[in-house]
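Cont'd.
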Amino acid sequence: MSTTYTERVAGSALRDFVTDFAQVLSIATFFIICLVFFGTMSDVFLTPANLLNIVRQAAPILVVAVAMTMVITTAGIDLSVGSQVAFINALAAITISAGVPWPVAIVLMLAAGAMIGGVQGWFVSYQGIPAFIVTLAGLSIYRGAALLLTEGYSIPIRDADGFLWLGRGTLLGIPVPALIAVLVVIAGFVVMWRTPYGRQIIACGSNLEAARRVGMPARRVVNSVYVLTGVASALAALLLAARLGSGSSNAAQGFELQVIAGVVLGGTSLMGGKTSMIGTVLGTLTIAVIGNGLILMHVSPFFTQIVTGVIILLAIWMNTRLFTGTWKIGKGASNG
Amino acid sequence: MSTTYTERVAGSALRDFVTDFAQVLSIATFFIICLVFFGTMSDVFLTPANLLNIVRQAAPILVVAVAMTMVITTAGIDLSVGSQVAFINALAAITISAGVPWPVAIVLMLAAGAMIGGVQGWFVSYQGIPAFIVTLAGLSIYRGAALLLTEGYSIPIRDADGFLWLGRGTLLGIPVPALIAVLVVIAGFVVMWRTPYGRQIIACGSNLEAARRVGMPARRVVNSVYVLTGVASALAALLLAARLGSGSSNAAQGFELQVIAGVVLGGTSLMGGKTSMIGTVLGTLTIAVIGNGLILMHVSPFFTQIVTGVIILLAIWMNTRLFTGTWKIGKGASNG
Amino acid sequence: MMATDTSIAPEGETSPSGGKPLMSLKGIRKTFGSHQALRGVDLDIFAGECVGLIGDNAAGKSTLSKIIAGTHIPDDGHMMLRDEPVRFQSPADARARHIEMVYQDLSLCDHIDVVGNLFLGREMTKGPFLDQDQMIKRAEEMLARLEIRIPRLTAKVEKLSGGQRQAIAIARAASFEPDILIMDEPTSALAVAEVEAVLGLINRVKERGVGVILVTHRMQDLFRVCDRIAVMYEGTKVAERRTQDTNLEELVDLIVGKGGH
Amino acid sequence: MMATDTSIAPEGETSPSGGKPLMSLKGIRKTFGSHQALRGVDLDIFAGECVGLIGDNAAGKSTLSKIIAGTHIPDDGHMMLRDEPVRFQSPADARARHIEMVYQDLSLCDHIDVVGNLFLGREMTKGPFLDQDQMIKRAEEMLARLEIRIPRLTAKVEKLSGGQRQAIAIARAASFEPDILIMDEPTSALAVAEVEAVLGLINRVKERGVGVILVTHRMQDLFRVCDRIAVMYEGTKVAERRTQDTNLEELVDLIVGKGGH
Amino acid sequence: QDDGKTFALVQINQQALFFNEMNRGAQEAADELGVELVIFNANNEAFEQNSAIETYITQGVDGIAVVAIDVNGIMPAVEQADAAGIPVVAIDAILPEGPQAAQIGVDNAQAGADLASFIGENMESEEMSLGVVGALNSYIQNVRRDGFVDNLPEGVSVVNTVDGQNIQDVALNASENLLTANPGMNAIYGTGEPALMGAIAAVTSQGRTEDISIYGWDLTEQVIQGIDDGYVKAVVQQDPAQMGAEAIRSLNTLADGGEVESEISVPVTIVTQDNVDDFRSLFE
Ligand SMILES: Nc1ncnc2c1ncn2[C@@H]1O[C@H](COP(=O)(O)OP(=O)(O)OP(=O)(O)O)[C@@H](O)[C@H]1O
Ligand SMILES: Nc1ncnc2c1ncn2[C@@H]1O[C@H](COP(=O)(O)OP(=O)(O)OP(=O)(O)O)[C@@H](O)[C@H]1O
Ligand SMILES: O[C@@H]1[C@H](O)[C@H](O)CO[C@H]1O
Ligand SMILES: [Mg+2]
Ligand SMILES: [Mg+2]
């Protein structure tokens, strides 16, 4: 008896690529569709001024979304970022009003953010309390603290032009907040893509016990990502304060959901392990573009919320069908 | 050579009990501490009138929390419940104002809730879109729809005393909303504890693929829990409308976070599979009790948010340390 | 590209009964991304016989088993069950046709207790409620037959030892009167006595007319329960032997591609 | 309650070298809830030898292995490493002492690719960045030594076959020059040739002076690589034999409690 | 001095100066009268206001002042308080017919209309195209929007309305987009403090102070700066502190068995460059 042994032939690498990056490809496609659609519907939309506008507006969200991507990758969540932004934003205005030089104030605020995040992260990682509960408590605490600090006043920031430049200035024609956001995004991307720390974050989210077993400092890593959201929230708070020229406890309400929406839309999984920094950027920008585009199209404000929701849902739906291959006709169409 | 073979002696069953029910025991303990504390601090707190008050106030949250427990047990989430409440609540007011008899309106509203939930569930289960995104879109869509219906105003419900009784009346001295909530809680408890459907929900959350492989209708089950949050939201909306005597697009803002907080505080895990209906009830009531107690204690409103957050955090922290046994002194204190 | 063993004796001859196969697969293909997991596989299963399915790691054994159990949908190929063409859209379809499988990854629900996992998808009820007492009683019998000791049937399976978990998966698949029982490396984590119990179980169900597919790397077990052995290589079936016509060395050679003597 | 085999020859005699043990455990106990997983276990591991650890399912083999690897902290008992008392608070502590383990559940990160899992916790870097090219090159060597074929090293391990996954776990533990290598049922999912490769690997690392603990249910493997065999029963060590002084039947009897002839 | 009376003030939120000023006024009045004041912050949740009132009823406070989020929805609680013999006064948001003893504050619709006619009287050009930054989730602000828009003079057209959601940074983004979307627009109306703050930040940071006029509600330091700089033309300023004080004084009278006017009006001022100096002291 003779048997014929043949080896498998490797199929097209493109298929693996599409499978591996389905979610990013999907949000990228949809982002482009949005750009084209709004570009067609409004003359102003694709003007450099408007595009820069969008990036400047999205900058605080982008900055926090980068850190949030890391938190969510560890299967955690940080619901307190909006309150942290409000708190630091108020604290910054008070500090600067009190005469502290603004560069010093910036350093102090970033340190305060790191501390707040560090404490929350400690409860999550070393005490094993669900991140949702810890940061929900934080959401309440820091918003309350912001209220207490400002007593409802919005505190103007005066005589700190250098500081205000952070929010309003431009460098080489590009708004400073946009530049800062781009730097943060690049840093976040490189960290997650090609550093041992990024690898540790993914490992902790994929299989925390496995990460611990291979000797990774799993708890420290989990703790650290909350420090990062703290610092990022502080940075976002500074950008907002500089843009608004004031600090107020009213700032950044619902901010956390906007940030998380961008991250999840970009394909990072709330169950941990699955991450995409590019996806986060595209997800966040998509939401910003929709908000901007609808106003440019003069959609009635009574409809904007409905339209925004429907667009996001249909978009992700369409793209899921496109890229997971379930759109094949007939058999194999259902997966069970 | 002779070897001695002995069998293991089973240790105390109490230890297993404590381990298995750590989270419920912990929230129960804390709930009792809260009762005792506020009872000591305020004469009014433990009066039947106030306690019934608390249950009536918590009723809408409790009703939705029961359904939310099921959703979260499947590793899902429903962020749209607050918006659904606002939408149905506005719709109910409009329907009744339009002259539809209130019993008919109630049936219509519950059906509308089921439909809304069913659509969201379909996207989650049959289309495989993350529940977070689907229901975040829902959060936006239904709030927008409520705004559109009411144009930002509130719509009074008149000449429907039977309907208003649902929110304000009493039966045998107990407020009707409280009775309804208790019925829903009992139903939810029995379903999760002792029915095949409850078992399917847990299985889908624990290991969706395993549930599918043993022939469970996994997708249908996942779809169904969103129908339940839809119906529960509609019921909560009716309770609210009946209590307030009006429908408003502003109703139930931030409601989703309150509901989810109660569920998670009660020990149901956002990662799915781990569930506790009793925990949900205790978690929800704890938050309600803290809110009520702080009002009775005349805590400055600038501090309530801070105090609420701190109490929740410290409570869960204390209890984690108590019941997981990590409080043993010396070795074994750290788990790595 | 197809490379099935053409020189093997025709179907009828390798079958123990000479009758019609219980289940028959033809030209089954399955591709994941760029990877061809199965490149056209034919296989027959007869009632009352055990087919051993062996092959190198990643040869495609589990993929083929899952296709029979309805867990994967093949890209191409036909399946016949008792002469009737079938196309499973989900494991529920296969289970409805009395096809049960022990998965290599066990497919247990960690958050559910031992009893619950044993009866998963087939809970016993009393009225609308789960009949926990009845299930516990039957669970004890089911496990006793596999000689496995599990002290607390209401403990979550998460914390059980590897062997205990595997025994639960086996008990679950074997206890509900399947017509076809697929076992993907069912004894890999079991101790000696428990392996014996599983082999005994296979022989018992065969007598009842069940068709068994046994995927295993434990060559010595094949000769104790299998009537026929199919060898897979890189997504194809390269050989099929009656157990009595072959021996360990030949099988090992066939697996690694030194076959064809 | 303690039930170690008291009639066995004293330590020195079962040791291959007659020297001091590399690692020595005394009176190790571990309880989970109401369940006594380990009820006082003593065990020595010598450099350059392989100790087989066998026993019925749920006997406590994995629990004992995890204690040596720092994954569990014992409730009671002492551990000595090269005459120095040690108390591991985490696997990182054990890894720092060159103790590596292949876990029964493999402990892979499903979302990370093959290379990433092989180097998990020991990533190669170039400056502050991962040196992916270098890692891929070394990963190919690591896997080749185990004769496992994995077509795409940048594929997520999630989708790999059972045997491929196990090979990754083995390669990871064995490739970084451990002093003590604990393998909890490392060959359960491997095909014939791959099992041979692992047994060969064990013999090779023994020659380099590594102390190996092999937990397995494949009795025949024990005789190919082990110098000494410890038998566990219900959380205790009931017997210890030099491989050359025992045989398969005796071991099977010892496992099920018919021992002591 | 202390006759042991306790009054409750049920507030909407504490994130705007308006409410905090009201709280301050109420507190000062309470101190003056020697009564205790407790304040509840509903954080914009309508049903929390009802819950708080119910709790105060059980506790037996001597009077309740409420700034309603949902004017219809608050009524059951108001009726309950009345049934329990506790006097209720409403501040700012006008409640429908009911047992409340007094309505204190501003007619927001009327004030909106007044601002509209102010624009009519002071128009510098024939045409004005105006964008509205509103807060659709605030009943009071919807009233202000409609009162204003419905009474705009000839020549003024509303080109776009955006929703600032009563959050400063949201209002800022919405205002920026409003500016981009309507290059020809030359005026903005902000219906409340966050909306106005957002509009001001947008106009200043985009350097549009030359060609955009801003109108709106509620003074803050930034608004005064804007008036000084000339691009903020007119702002409705209420006297929230006085509203709060009036509420407590009324409750005190009512609790003592007295009677109060059913409508206590606290007039608004339209603040322009002409009279802004009178208000500077508020922010020192
Ligand atoms: N869901 C999947 N997605 C992508 N690739 C898959 C998937 N399932 C299996 N594969 C690939 O198909 C090939 C065959 O896998 P399969 O599990 O069938 O092997 P096997 O013969 O059971 O091997 P083992 O003896 O190691 O269990 C492997 O290369 C595997 O990586
Ligand atoms: N984390 C844990 N929590 C609770 N019980 C546990 C835990 N780990 C192990 N056990 C219990 O301890 C006992 C011993 O388990 P262990 O995994 O050590 O057995 P084993 O000898 O490795 O068995 P197998 O051969 O089946 O792998 C089992 O009864 C198991 O249920
Ligand atoms: O009435 C108030 C104030 O005027 C302030 O603008 C904040 O929000 C509104 O609801
Ligand atoms: Mg397999
Ligand atoms: Mg084990």
